[in-house]
Amino acid sequence: MSALNQCRLFAHLSAEDAEDRIAEVPHRHRSFAEGEIIAFKGDAYEELFILLKGTLSAEISDIRGRVLKVETLKAPTMVAAGIVFAERSILPVRLTATEPGTLLILPRSSLIDLAQRDSRILMGLLQDSGNRIRFLADKLRFVQMNSLEEKIAIYFTEQAEFQGRPVIELPYSIEALSELFGVTRPALSRSIGRLVDDGVLERRGRAFRIVDAEELRGRTGD
Amino acid sequence: MSALNQCRLFAHLSAEDAEDRIAEVPHRHRSFAEGEIIAFKGDAYEELFILLKGTLSAEISDIRGRVLKVETLKAPTMVAAGIVFAERSILPVRLTATEPGTLLILPRSSLIDLAQRDSRILMGLLQDSGNRIRFLADKLRFVQMNSLEEKIAIYFTEQAEFQGRPVIELPYSIEALSELFGVTRPALSRSIGRLVDDGVLERRGRAFRIVDAEELRGRTGD
Known about the structure:
The structure is a homodimer of 222-residue chains. By secondary structure, the first copy, chain A, is an alpha+beta fold. Chain A contains eight helices and nine strands. Chain A has helices spanning 15-23, 81-85, 108-117, 119-143, 148-163, 174-181, 185-197, 213-218, and strands at 28-32, 37-39, 47-61, 67-74, 77-79, 94-107, 167-169, 201-204, 207-210. In chain A, strands 1, 2, 3, 4, 5 and 6 form a six-stranded antiparallel beta sheet that branches. Chain A is globular. The A-B interface holds A 42, 60, 63, 82-90, 92, 112, 115-116, 119, 122-123, 125-127, 129-134, 136-141, 143-144, 153-154, 157, 161-162, 171, 217, 220 and B 42, 60, 63, 82-90, 92, 112, 115-116, 119, 122-123, 125-127, 129-134, 136-141, 143-144, 153-154, 157, 161-162, 171, 217, 220.
């Protein structure tokens, strides 16, 4: 079982404090087996699921019934926290367990209580939503671009601009970045590798230096 | 000047209560003229702008410097509320005034204070983020579909499924729905009109009845 404070909601608390806070409000646990369907698309989602252990697959089926995986959720994480507070709290995906595990379930009223009692929990809740909005808005922009090289060129150019220097620290892991771009992780690694081989980027540990900004911009196509 | 409680943050309060709450925390007002640039893309965004009066255009420029409008913001509304709490609070758009107006500016710490003092404000803040996440996640799905007819067919079919009956109330206005689908409002109206003319949908005031679900599904292409 992972420590509770590895989950963003409790990121600003110690694991002990997080457990103490939860003990003060109504909550419950639910164990599940591999292959179990945890919730259906269209279910009311008015209680937050916190995945403490195990792995869930978030799936949709298209209009012809084909199942498409949207996202893999690994513990510890909150499941669709934004939806709990949306005006129509309806789960937009089906949740299927791909590994056995445990959920901590917090009713909406318990979340409100926790956030009011402890500003660190409030901050965790708002940060999680903020990060999610930022990620989705960025993803929406990248999904409309044509090539992976264009996505990389625009992302790295913008990061250099925001960070105010040509050596940039990627704020996401390569895995998260590949999800942002809507490509596989190996495809992203290959494409970045090609830019390094071509002398456009230089790798410096987890950071990158833009060697040839002009050439990088030239990779954006059209 | 619009009443404060028309803004989602204060939606659960009376206008008087909202003004009283704000008076209790640090805040300021800022007036702006038409054409004024309110904030640049890449600016730190750690204070919430609430647009009380006027209209802003949220714009990005592409890698070649061409300006693209992302969204029109009309008072009363919060500006990019999610970003204030994201871990990297950087404004992803430039804000330009297209009509003169006024902003109410609330530092992040004032927002936290307000949310802790009054659970109705906390609920407004969380609902706003939840609605935004839902909208962006839906938009991300629709932007990857090919035709407008496919988007309409899938949206209406899903709504009938969620609402559990063939007569559906659209949860969005036609304007919001056209933004969700990434098309113009007239194009959306025309396309819905065609489905009504073809006897696939029947209009009932603000609601629609799905007359021919089979034919509607058939419009999804491939």
